[in-house]
Design goal:
Length: about 240
């Protein structure tokens, strides 16, 4: 039976899984309140306005210390961030074109963009700095740079692990300040809050519970051990080329 456009969009909406539904509830609540069908979940996909592409990290499956179940769940979560980033950008663009920037809908979607965009990008950095073997080159440029900032590589690693061990959920991120060249480990509690302006993310460790609880329960230290065994230091060192330090 042929379904009209409105009914089809509603059907697609209710077919979303629960997690995706919850993450989008706030955004869509505004959309439904406003009565704008062009801010619906289906619209961005239908109109093909997917600015950012979902990256494939299946190469990480089988990685020692990370079950496929955990990784596949994590990939799904990441994919949601990419999808939502595209939808937000599309919705904001529509509101701009319609001259509706001075609206609560515009403001709330704009606020949400930092969360979804960084959720996408931080996961890409995270997955891309995994899958390595062999450990860091102790005579390499990164080790020397970390020693300049922390006194030694070992002191940096101790601080990075301590950052990742902090109570709460978030990210441990080694940043390099592009102006001073200095390296600093940051705790990022929320994707969109607390990032140092103008700094380059060098190494990223996800310590949200979804990153480890399936495999390690509450033993975050064991997860961090596995993380360190699988850091792709070659990829991490490439990030140093992106700035002056
Ligand atoms: Fe994550």
């Amino acid at each position: 039976m042929k379904m009209d456009k409105g009914r089809k969009e509603k059907k697609e909406f209710f077919q979303l899984n629960r997690r995706r539904f919850l993450s989008l509830l706030g955004i869509l609540g505004l959309a439904f309140i406003s009565g704008k069908s062009d801010i619906s979940i289906a619209s961005a996909e239908k109109e093909g306005k997917m600015t950012y592409q979902i990256k494939d990290y299946n190469r990480l499956l089988g990685m020692e210390g990370f079950s496929d179940t955990l990784l596949k769940n994590h990939f799904t979560l990441y994919q949601g961030y990419v999808t939502n980033t595209n939808k937000l950008l599309d919705s904001l663009n529509h509101l701009l074109k319609e001259g509706k920037t001075a609206t609560p809908e515009y403001a709330e979607l704009k606020r949400r963009l930092g969360w979804e965009f960084n959720g996408m990008r931080l996961h890409e950095y995270y997955f891309e700095n995994l899958g390595g073997k062999g450990g860091i080159d102790k005579g390499g440029k990164l080790v020397l740079k970390l020693a300049e900032s922390y006194g030694s590589y070992e002191a940096w690693e101790k601080d990075f692990r301590a950052t990742g061990s902090m109570r709460g959920i978030g990210w441990a991120i080694l940043y390099q300040d592009i102006f001073s060249g200095k390296f600093v480990n940051f705790w990022i509690n929320e994707h969109d809050v607390g990032h140092p302006a103008g700094a380059m993310p060098i190494l990223i460790m996800d310590v949200f519970e979804h990153a480890f609880m399936i495999d390690y329960g509450l033993k975050r230290a064991d997860y961090m051990e596995a993380f360190f065994r699988n850091i792709n230091w070659t990829e991490v060192e490439k990030r140093l080329l992106l700035h002056k330090g």
